Amino acid sequence: MRSRRWVLILLAALMAIPSLVIGADKIRIATEGAYSPFNYVNPKGELEGFDVDIAKALCEAMKADCTMVSQDWDGIIPALQAKKYDVIVASMAVTEKRKEAIAFTKPYYYSVASYVVRKESKFPDKIESLTGKNIGVQRATIHEGTIKEMYKDKVTIKTYDTNENCILDLKNKRIDAMIASRPLMAHYIKHHPESGFAFLLGMYNPVDAAIGLRKEDKALLDKFNAALDTIIKNGTYEKISNKWFGESLLKK
């Protein structure tokens, strides 16, 4: 009888092992992969950047089994809704229009936008200096709306699939200026002084960047919010932010 009891205990223990694996959260996370230093593909073909490190830290805090994929920005929300993945961690600004389509966590960083020009342009630091010029911007971003609001039809707007291609055209003098996230461009200007870029005008579009999920995935939303609280409290967030920007992006 005693040996039979131990056999039953052993069987129960063995059955518990696969159940733990099956019960583990498997989460698919999308990022753009073309928005350095927030998210990009390194020479080895791996996703890297601030967003990627934050996503990994959140998964570790949740003890979740996560996989990351890249997705073009234009289709990143439709693909989430089509269930190609479960979560977007891609420096997405929270807007009323986007909130109609998906749910957002609490912000994981704050940002503003700025115009960038080539130093050689020597534009006066005033709004009128860009009138009649060609301005580049990544399409489907809130920055495109900023140009239209500020200049209406007084400038020519050129849109790009990625911010990297916009930077390339500014560098090659195919546009006169561009508008993008200030932290992103500050990082670029610091690490690419040969580009000869400089900021022009003030700061616009104060935004909250948050993680996007399908509206029906409320339990998963709660888990990500709790995990975000965890990595902020235990210092992981600050370590990641300092690694990429030398300061915390949670500062307004």
Describe the structure.
By secondary structure, the protein is α/β, with parallel strands linked by helices. The chain has two domains: 25-110 and 208-245, D-Maltodextrin-Binding Protein, domain 2, CATH 3.40.190; 111-207, Periplasmic binding protein-like II (D-Maltodextrin-Binding Protein, domain 2). The protein contains nine helices and twelve strands. The strands form two sheets. Strands 1, 5, 6, 7, 8, 9, 10, 11 and 12 form a nine-stranded mixed β-sheet that branches. Strands 2-3-4 form a three-stranded antiparallel β-sheet. A hairpin with a 3-residue loop joins β2 and β3 (39-41). α2 crosses α8.
Q: Which terms would index this structure?
A:
252 residues; 12 strands; D-Maltodextrin-Binding Protein, domain 2; 40% helix; globular; single chain; 28% strand; three-stranded antiparallel sheet
